Amino acid sequence: MIGRKRTIFGVLLPICRAFHPTVGPTIRAIMSDIDGTLVHYAKDFAHHGVKLISSDEEALTATVEGPNGERRRCRLLPSATMGPACISERTIELVEALRARGVLFCVCTAARKSTMMRRLDMLPTCDAVVCEGGSRMVVNGALDIDFTKSFETICGPMSREVVGEDDRPEPLWQYYRLLQEKVSGLSLDANSYFGMFRASALGDETTEDALQEMISKIPHGISVNSNLGKTDFFPTLAGKANAVMHLQKKFGIDILETVCLFDDDNDLLMAEQCGVHLLPSLTSFSIKNAVSRNPSWFVPKAVGQGVFATEECLEKLLSRVMTEQKMQADVDLLLGEVKDEMSQQASLDKKTDRGGEVESR
């Protein structure tokens, strides 16, 4: 009998240790875009059968109704250029439930600083905030200088916040002024941006061609990305993907432990740094093509239906986290029981050996 127990525990112990301290790559962090992902605009979700039933821009509240008549209470978030957007109270609850289980929640957006600061109190609690296309990072309420100092020679220190693009001497702003001079009809936006700027040809083909010609000669150290039909320019060492990698290193989180919640082209590089992918909206052909190439990416049944799609993604994620944590607790319990049995068996063996020694004497 003793030999059998030794065999059983000898097999169980390495199995438990193989799964300890984690049962595979558990979810530890969410990197989420905002517009079209966490918050949604009526002009977008109306195409998918969702209605904005009521909206109070003074109280910053709204109610939306899904195709099946289900309603959600929402908060209205301000935007400098696109009008108010909806985030459901249920979305807030789901994110807070994930955070209560130890999952970090970080937002990564191209939004300008002023918009991000106005929105922050209406979003779920954020462990880190990345805005301006991945050039401004705030962790625990403070600017992350370790991240921004790597590219301040390109755009200037993020703490400077000089108002007026003409007063900024760095290469990013030199290029801004060059576009202003060389591309007739180009709309340039640097309002409350300090680590990036945005350009739009406003639908004019001649202006777009001239812009693309300038982009083909873009200076070293500056990168470009498409976002919401506009073109963003930012330091190459900034960007959402680099921000995510910095946060993973800062918090000791692996790619496979990271979730990307996203919807647009400018999120694809960020998505490459994550192991789990959730898409409440599919906003472009390139995103749809990426989904077809990656069957593990989760697209909800309510895709495009605004807050309902976001909730479906977060509910799936919460269910996974709860299952993983239960499995972890079960493995920990089993490992503890095996260790106790092994300890008790070792004590019995010692007593048996001592008894044998006494008898032989």
Written account of the structure:
The chain has 361 residues and is an alpha/beta fold. It has 2 domains: 25-148 and 238-353, HAD superfamily/HAD-like (Rossmann fold); 151-236, Alpha-Beta Complex (Hypothetical Protein Ta0175, Chain: A, domain 2), CATH 3.90.1070. It contains 12 helices and 15 strands. The strands form 3 sheets. A 7-stranded mixed β-sheet has the order 9-8-7-6-1-14-15. It has a 4-stranded antiparallel β-sheet with strand order 2-3-4-5. The model is unreliable at 1-6 and 19-23 (pLDDT under 50).
Report the top-level CATH class of the largest domain.
Alpha Beta
Largest sheet: 7 strands, mixed
At the fourth level of CATH, the homologous superfamily of the largest domain is HAD superfamily/HAD-like
Count of DSSP strands = 15
The pLDDT mean sits at 88
Instruction: Supply the helix-strand structural class.
Output: alpha/beta
Q: Oligomeric state of the chains?
A: single chain
Order of helices and strands: HEHEEEEHEHEEEHHHEEHEEHEHEHH
SSE map:
Elements: H1 2-19, E1 29-32, H2 42-45, E2 51-56, E3 61-65, E4 71-77, E5 85-88, H3 89-100, E6 104-108, H4 113-119, E7 128-131, E8 136-139, E9 142-143, H5 145-148, H6 152-155, H7 171-182, E10 187-189, E11 197-200, H8 205-215, E12 222-227, E13 230-235, H9 240-251, E14 258-261, H10 268-272, E15 276-278, H11 285-293, H12 307-360
Parallel strand pairs: 1-6, 1-14, 6-7, 14-15
Antiparallel strand pairs: 2-3, 3-4, 4-5, 7-8, 8-9, 10-11, 11-13, 12-13
Helix pairs in contact: 1-12, 3-12
Which properties best describe this structure?
361 residues; four-stranded antiparallel β-sheet; Rossmann fold; disordered N terminus; seven-stranded mixed β-sheet
